[in-house]
């Protein structure tokens, strides 16, 4: 009947508006039962359960065999780890897989089976679940004793498929790979040619004493390739050329040419090509998100215009005031946006809304989220008004920065003067006195600011909360120090009077006051622009961070499967060149440097090893040297670490630089001439960063897309 149809249209409009708010696709079933299921699936509770399930299945790697539940990862001192009994983690994993099966079933039903086969991600989702379940059954059949578990490598896929932004980012990276491959191929040619030259240039001679370059670095083709590849990362520079350079300084020309061509030209050329190909990626993604939002709002308008209460004699479709109010009451959206839309709707005198008016109402979703600080208190006393004026003046903040600088300088001067003194010769009276003075000033500054601004307004600023927390911590530690050690006096050395030196803690916390200087950033226009741009990027680049987590996880699990148990201690030794058995540990090798904690035996340590290889210049030789000593196949170790270096240091870092440049240049042009507003904070998202350069979709584009909806039949 008419009432049932109207309820359906209202519910459809509610779901379409919620899709627009979250930038979701509207290509899903729109019957009453499907709409209820759709809203239930995207409810906070269901999405929280799904996110928790993904977190749990990824975290299983820390406790399942090989377990990371040990105090240390050093193979010399590590006690046997507790490994859960067979079936414990497998039961948890099965529950997670069942949740994913429900997830993919609901998604597949909601979009329809015809659309399902067009969605590659959902097909891959089902295949991943099938492989994981099959591997889970194999695991139980072997009583959890097998070392290779394919499903562990596939687990990051569950994180990847759950984020639309991560999927868009991955798609863009995939489109950039052909151009990156051409430069990587050029790097390979460069490396191969110089490897041939090196093997000819540093060939073995009759004089064994002069063949150190050949023995250590260029003995054969794999060693030569490895040495030059590490030189490309500058990790073994200048070690690799020292033997030859000691023999003849002209040999340095070879290494200089290799480094200049490879590092300065080819690596930077790779950055330029990636930036050129990746430029515009985020803008296109945000443009697509804007189209989804406009399409969702227009779909809501179209279904509401089909209500029976809409006048039939109108030439253009309209939506009634009451229908929109009814929809807004059901929609889950930010209260700020809902209140703004309701205010705009009440200010509108018309009872019917056209498509343009309807769309304009929901442009409130595109505006910046504004956080206004509470007002300052109003005092009647003239003295309090003067105190409020003085404490709230910008110069009072500048004075606080100057005092903080003086605090830091005084601590540094005292530490430098006492650096060469014996502990018994030190006198901490001066440092204790100045610390007491500065802490009292910080306390006075905090109280005066609270007096001038009021407690609520004072706490509404993050910088004030940080300063206040530091001040309270300093004050508590100072009082505790005086209670234990007494007041500062000549010859005062509190570090000798107790087991826990509170005085050292006070000095460390005092150094945190250096962050007070971050408050000068808003007063410097271009510095503020740089910092706010970086902060916005950090907050909004979750997709890149998510894909990095996926790659980290997959490489860590693969490393455990390949190299678990490879690092075996030779004994508790530490020497420059130590004889062990019949051999001698060479200086600079894995054993001599005692890198025993960096092994491949569990997930936690592999995560650290992978991070270490990413952040520190490529230490490939330290790992492959030890893998050789335990008779592993060296090429597998080299392939593994070279692959990780290519993905993390070459491809991923350059992709991040490209995205950083694009966002920074755009925001620099946008905000360079904007005047700061001191009392209002704009909380921007990545979509709002590009709002002024996005193109609005046309009426024809929206209607054409709506008519292609697989489950929605429009009346016109």
From TrEMBL:
One of its GO terms (cellular component) is late endosome membrane. The chain crosses the membrane at residues 45-63, 122-143, 180-202, 253-275, 395-417, 429-448, 469-488, 508-531, 543-563, 609-628, 640-661. Residues 55-278, 397-664 form the Ion transport domain. It is a multi-pass membrane protein. Its main location: membrane. It catalyses: Na(+)(in) = Na(+)(out); Ca(2+)(in) = Ca(2+)(out). InterPro entries: Ion_trans_dom, TPC2, Volt_channel_dom_sf. GO terms for molecular function: calcium channel activity; intracellularly phosphatidylinositol-3,5-bisphosphate-gated monatomic cation channel activity; ligand-gated sodium channel activity; voltage-gated channel activity. Keywords: Calcium, Calcium channel, Calcium transport, Endosome, Glycoprotein, Ion channel, Ion transport, Lysosome, Membrane, Repeat, Transmembrane, Transmembrane helix, Transport, Voltage-gated channel. It comes from the Eukaryota. Belongs to the calcium channel alpha-1 subunit (TC 1.A.1.11) family. Two pore calcium channel subfamily. This is Two pore channel protein 2. It comes from Cariama cristata (Red-legged seriema). The lineage of its organism: Eukaryota, Metazoa, Chordata, Craniata, Vertebrata.
